[in-house]
Amino acid sequence: MARDQKDHYYRKAKEEGYRARSAYKLLQINEKFHVIKKGDSVVDLGAAPGGWLQVAQKLSGGKIVGVDLEGITPIPGVVTFRADITALSTVDQVKDALGGDADVVICDAAPNLSGAWDRDHAISIDLARSALEMAKKLLRPRGNFVVKVFQGDMFIDFLNDVRREFAVVHAHSPAASRKESAETYVVGKKLLSAPVRKGDMLNVRIESVGKSGDGVAMVEGFAIIVRGSKLKEELLVKVDAVLTNFAFAEIVERKS
């Protein structure tokens, strides 16, 4: 408490009516990455005490839903309820409250810290993975995602998992994060709705040739541009990049 009483963002939050100093982290993240826009529907996972809900409402003015195991003091115009963000049943509850899919899912939840760093890091990653799985079910295509994680050995694997699901991904520590903190925020923009992901191995047939001269295969109506391929070739390919409307792949094996 003594540290908090002297903290710039703690005092600023008190003065400006935010429930937590963490409100400025979301404000700074949004200023840099433009995650939340006017009119967006936003879901806050692990929302207590409500500082990020206040910011989301300020930035959006659209439908805002907050979920936490703890009760959240009501915020006018914001829907909140108690639920477990790791439970699949929560998805239906949130969609009912929103009336559809979300534009943005945010999560500033953190585990109860034990002081044993390896354990705390592992629990943080598990919590972040639960938020990612929830976001994949709640977000509309091209929706955005922000989640807090603690740095450690498993961070890169988690970051790569987010990269498989979003077109643009950043890891960022806003100025409002305490310098001694190991927390960072992973920002995913433009949820991919493609039926393929980076690293997938696929058997394909080249059905057309694009303007670049490379062959194009179709997977469930989604275009895969295969570098160096020719019309009617049957190939084993590896997807190396997935964008919103198409993907790129490299040839692993020519079958014909």
TrEMBL record:
SUPFAM superfamilies reported in the protein's UniProt record: Nucleic acid-binding proteins (SSF50249), S-adenosyl-L-methionine-dependent methyltransferases (SSF53335)
Subcellular locations according to the entry: Cytoplasm
GO MF annotation terms: rRNA (uridine-2'-O-)-methyltransferase activity
A Pfam family annotated for this UniProt entry: FtsJ
Family: Belongs to the class I-like SAM-binding methyltransferase superfamily. RNA methyltransferase RlmE family.
Catalytic activity: uridine(2552) in 23S rRNA + S-adenosyl-L-methionine = 2'-O-methyluridine(2552) in 23S rRNA + S-adenosyl-L-homocysteine + H(+)
EC annotation from Swiss-Prot or TrEMBL: 2.1.1.166
Top-level EC class: transferase
Protein's name in the database: Ribosomal RNA large subunit methyltransferase E
Gene from which this protein is expressed: rrmJ
Active site: K148
Transmembrane region(s): none
